Amino acid sequence: MVILTTEEKLQHFLEFCMEDARSRSAKMLDEYTQALEQTFSEHQEDARRRAEHQVKSESEQIEREINKRLSLEQISTKREFGKMQDELKEKLFQELNEMVIEYRNTPQYTELLQKEIKAAKELAGKEFITIYIDPDDEEKIRSLSLPESADIRVSEYSFMGGTRAVIPSRHILVDNSFQTKLAEAKRDFRFNIKDLMGGTAND
Q1: Per-residue pLDDT reduced to its tens digit, 5-17
Q2: Widest pairwise Cα distance in the chain
Q3: Residues 187, 182: Cα–Cα separation, whole Å
Q4: DSSP secondary structure of 118-153
Q5: Which residues of 122-161 are buried (b: 16+ CB within 10 A; e: fewer)?
Q6: How far is it, in rounded angstroms, from Cα 78 to Cα 84?
Q7: Of 150, 180, 186, 189, which is closest to residue 166 (Cα–Cα)?
Q8: Chain segment 60-113, per-residue pLDDT in tens
Q9: Which of 26, 85, 171, 180 is the most exposed place for a label (fewest CB within 10 A)?
Q10: Which residues pair with 177 in a beta bridge?
Q11: Least trusted range by pLDDT, from 66-75, 136-145, 186-195
Q12: pLDDT for 203
């Protein structure tokens, strides 16, 4: 049996305490390190999620902005295209009006009036019919042959040429005025986009 002195006992106790402290410190350090690593990992994951969310949010915002700008550009383009069509349409019908004026000074125009008078009378049959011509065509009355049961008059209002006829008994108006025909043509006129773009119908 070994008998330890007080000093040896204290030394032994001190060594035991130091070893225990080192052991517990090492364990605590391991636990703390693991906790830090876990926290860091969670922080990384959270940061990644937030970054992905931000990228997605900004991408959606950019896409919305692009779509908005495209929409505005399309509206602007359509507006400009519509304006160009209107300008071309006005120019076209101005030229048509000038062609009508020139046509009214030709023998073919007098022949047309005669055909319209004949067609209107055929429609009226035996019913009385009043045929109106444009004020500017008054001098042509002498060169127009008028069928029976028909009266030809000069209209109080200009209608750019052609004829208008009324069958009173049947409440029928036959409107062959150039004014009406041009107005209808202008109302129904549509440009072929391929023509405006320089393409062909087969493109």
Answers
A1: 888 877 888 888 8
A2: 164
A3: 8
A4: HHHHHHHTTS-EEEEE-GGGGGGGGGS---TTEEEE
A5: eebeeeebebbbbeebeeeeeeeeeeeebebeebeeebbb
A6: 10
A7: 150
A8: 889 898 999 888 888 988 888 888 888 998 999 999 999 999 999 999 999 999
A9: 171
A10: 162
A11: 186-195
A12: 47
CA distances from 147 to 107, 125, 140, 144, 196 (A): 20, 11, 16, 10, 48
Residue 98: how many other CB atoms lie within 10 Å: 10
pLDDT of residue 199: 54
Per-residue confidence (pLDDT) for residue 192, from 0 to 100 = 75
**Residue in 112, 119, 120, 118 with CA at minimum distance from that of residue 161:** 112
Place of tokens 């127009």: 144
d(CA 156, CA 127): 24
For 121, other C-beta atoms within 10 Å of its C-beta total: 20
Beta partners for 77? none
- Under DSSP, is residue 176 helix (H, G, I), strand (E, B) or coil? strand
Measured in degrees and rounded to the nearest 5, phi and psi for residue 4 equal -95, 140
Residue 152 φ then ψ, to 5°: -110, 135
